Structures are given as structure tokens and as C-alpha cells.
Amino acid sequence: MKDLVGIKEISRQEIEEILNTARAFKEVLTRDIKKVPTLRGKTAINLFFEPSTRTRTSFELAEKRLSLDVLNFSVSTSSVVKGETLYDTLKTIESYNVDYIVIRHSASGAAKFVADNTPACVINAGDGTNEHPTQALLDAFSIVEVKGKLDGLKIAIVGDIIHSRVARSNLYLLSKFDTEITFVGPPTLLPSDVPSNVSISYDLKKGIKDADVVMLLRIQLERQKGAFIPSLKEYFHVWGLKGDAFSYLKKDAIVMHPGPMNRGVEISSEIADSPRSIILRQVTNGIATRMAVIYLLTRREV
């Protein structure tokens, strides 16, 4: 591949290759010297038009572990605030002969637009409500690391699904494996049209009862236009994963969250910090997974 714009476009075989490569790179991260010379002399630019902590730092660490030269693009201090278009920003960056562009943008389709207009390898770090492919890949890597497989698992995705690019990418990825997927949440935050392989539950306890994996999602107030829930307090009371609902989980079920998590909204501190939570493992695995993606992409020569 030249680009990773979305999970929808790639095959199960390609996903498995990325996960296997990530496993090898995770071993590198346990060494005293956590850097390999694989991509020395190449350049990556992180083009983030939206705020980010985990994704941006994870990509930057992954790039540096591969010996890339890294540039971080700050929109607030760039010509974008003066009215420069995404196309002109891209062409300016392209003139530096960069090899990799990691882009996060509020507009769905922005990553594909960039990929179609540059010979550099483009990685989608989240575009609008469309996709966040590397998050789905690191989630899959984390599940396989704990459960040993994806096939045969029951996975409950809980929360603000209609506004979540994480949910969409995970749906595309998990649908390429033999998994049972359930969307769980209030009717206002669940899509009206779901694939035939997805179940819907408006009851948290029933929705997570037999799940092997519970994947919580953040309530994305910044993308909501209107009142989808009465209040965050009420959401936590009914839909937040806490002690009363936690008892319905299977004994070996794991809890995930792509972050940033809101304690007391999507999850209680008790569960976020429990041995069943693999939230911090997801953060660690993000570096290895993104190293694998960068390593496997191939720039188009012009």
C-alpha cells in the first residue's frame, strides 16, 4: 500500500500482516535502545488540524523509533489561520520532499483528498466522523495479545457510536473476522442503519452480558449538534460502566477505551484502574502498531 486511509479498503490478510509486524516491533520497544535504523534519512510530517494527545505523541514516538526525521505541523501558528487551503498547505509540505504525512482533520474525506494529491505515503489519524484506522488496528492488536485471537469473540461497542470514527473503523475491521458485534447505548447515539452482522441493545447490562470484549467510547460533545442525552450525569447513571453493570461481565472479559476517557461519564475509576482494563496497554500498543503501518507503506515514485 501507499496509504492507509481507512480499514474499509484493506483486506483481512493485510490486517494480519500489520498485526504480525506490530508484534515484532513491540519486542524492539522492550530493548535498552528502542530505535531501529530502518527508515533513517526519510521524513515524516504530522499534520494535525484537531487537538490530540495520544495519537499525535504515539505517531511521533513511532516515527522516531524508526529513525525518521519528524516535523510537527501546528495549525494555530501556520498559514491555515490566514486562509490557506488544505491543497496549498499540502503542496507546500510536498515541496519539502517528505516521505510520510500523518493527517488528522475535522472533515470526513480529508485524508483521502491528501492521499490522492501527493506521492507521499499518507496515514489517516482521524478524519471527521469517518475513520480512525490505526486506532482500530491497535485495538485489534491489543485484543489478540490478551485473547489470542479475534475469530469467535463477542464484542460490545458501547456509547456514542453515531459520532465515532473509532467505532466505524472497528466495525470494518471486526467484520473481516468471525466476530459477533453488538452496539450498545441510548437510541439517540446509535445508528439507525446497521449492517446485518451487528446487533443492537438499548440495555447496557444485557448488551455486555456475554461479551468477551467491552469497548467503551467517549461522548463526543464537540461533534454533537443538539441534545442527544439529558446530561452527562444521567448518562453515567444509565450507561456508564460501573460496579452494578460490571458484575454482568464474563469473568475473563476485558474492558477497552480509545481515550481520552471521561471518568464518571463512560467509566468509573474503579473499573478503569482494574486488572480487567487494558486501556494503558492500548496506549503502549499504539506505538508498535503505528511503527508497523509506517514501515509497510511504500511511497509512490514520480
Q: Which class of secondary structure composition applies to the elements?
A: alpha/beta
Give me the side-by-side strand order of the main sheet: 7-6-5-8-9
- Count of alpha and pi helical runs: 11
CATH C-level of the largest domain? Alpha Beta
Low-confidence stretches: none
Count of folded domains: 2
Helix and strand pattern: HEHEHEHEHEHEEHEHHEHH
CATH homology group of the largest domain:
Aspartate/ornithine carbamoyltransferase
Average residue-wise pLDDT = 91
In percent, how helical is the residue content?
Answer: 25-40%
Q: How many beta-strand elements?
A: 9
Overview of the structural elements:
The structure is a single chain. By secondary structure, this protein is α/β, with parallel strands linked by helices. The chain has 2 domains: 12-131 and 284-296, 3-Layer(aba) Sandwich (Rossmann fold); 133-282, Aspartate/ornithine carbamoyltransferase (Rossmann fold), CATH 3.40.50. The chain has helices at 12-28, 54-65, 86-94, 110-116, 133-147, 165-174, 204-208, 232-239, 243-246, 269-272, 279-296, and strands at residues 43-48, 69-74, 100-105, 121-127, 154-158, 180-184, 198-201, 213-216, 254-256. The strands form 2 sheets. Strands 7-6-5-8-9 form a 5-stranded parallel β-sheet. Strands 2-1-3-4 form a 4-stranded parallel β-sheet, with helices on both faces. Helix 6 (165-174) links the parallel strand 5 and strand 6. It is globular. The chain starts with 11 loop residues before the first helix and ends in a 6-residue tail after the last helix. The model has no long low-confidence stretch (mean pLDDT 91).
